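Why do we care about 3D structure at all? Because function follows from shape, and shape follows, mostly, from sequence. That is the central idea of this module. The next example makes it concrete: a single protein chain, its amino acid sequence, and then its structure expressed as tokens.
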Amino acid sequence: MPSSLIDVLQRHRGDVDLPKLTSLSEVLDRLPDPRRVRGRRYRLGSLLALCLLAVLSGATTLAGIARFAADAPAEVRQRIGLRGLPRATTLGRLLSRLDGDVLDDAVGAWLTLHARDPADDDSSLVGVAIDGKAVRGSRHGEQAAIHLLAAVLHESQTVVSQRQITAKSNEIPAFVPLLVPLDLRRYVITADALHTQTAHAEHLIARGGHYILVVKGNQKNLRRQLRRLPWREVPLQHRTREQGHGRREIRRLKVCTVQPGLLFPHAVQAIEIKRRRTSRKTGKTTIKTIYAVTSLAPEQATAARIAELVRGHWQVEALHHIRDVTFAEDASRVHTGTAPRAMATLRNLAIGLIRQAGWTNIAAATDHYRSRTDHALQLLNLEN
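And the structure:
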């Protein structure tokens, strides 16, 4: 099981005796408050609940959150414990001073707990995609845009962990810290070629996880090994045909067991994917071959399941698209302190809740919750 909410919050607030936390309002209210005690006008949990309700309703800016508060019925403000109408500047100051790691750990633990289906077999594999995204609107003057690395459940586009990339660094050093809050048993980590690193593979296996990692030019010798495998002698094991986004695509997958000596730790099987795409507009066809390695043995995952996991990795791209298109993340000009990251976390949380509620269209869901705030309150269990 993943780290519990109590473990997460006690790690940062060891002096507090935490009860069993069941509602999201309790989680938000138990976060460390960065404000000085003197002069606090609003409860931390109430302000964060307000921000989340506003984002669920489609608010994309701090001013939009403040307008949501002003337009919300008095009963809604009362139910989240909000007395008065906070200004956008008040919200901005709070979000800019929050501890981003603490917020992401608490939100990730809560989402992981509620994303788990009690009917799931404990032995079933769960795909988790690792990918990064720059919040382009956070760029300000000489300050570069913040870059966030996230771990996303394939099935529900739920972000279960997130870390900010250190300035003048890249995603590689953030990989292990990203996964520290998670119990990796049952998880199959999928990632692009940047994260095909021996240290990453060692960490995943040591903690009971598995991986499917794409191999490209940053692992030249390994890629050369994979290309030289006798693929023509390996039978085709899975084939899919899809249409969408103005193209037709056929994907053919082969998997073969590799002997010891492959230049990557704990690799049990090699994967070859041939992707044939035809543009419906131009009629032009392109064929691309992709190689990958996995620690999964044949008895742990069939070729069809491996194909699902490889394909499921791209749910993280769909998540980024939603954040940019529906929630206008790249257009946001929030740039002070940790506020850009906190807003991204609120968007992740909103999307995870919407998916868990069964919505397939995020824009339709935000429209619904904008007009039915009582439904959002029921969804979030924010009653005090």
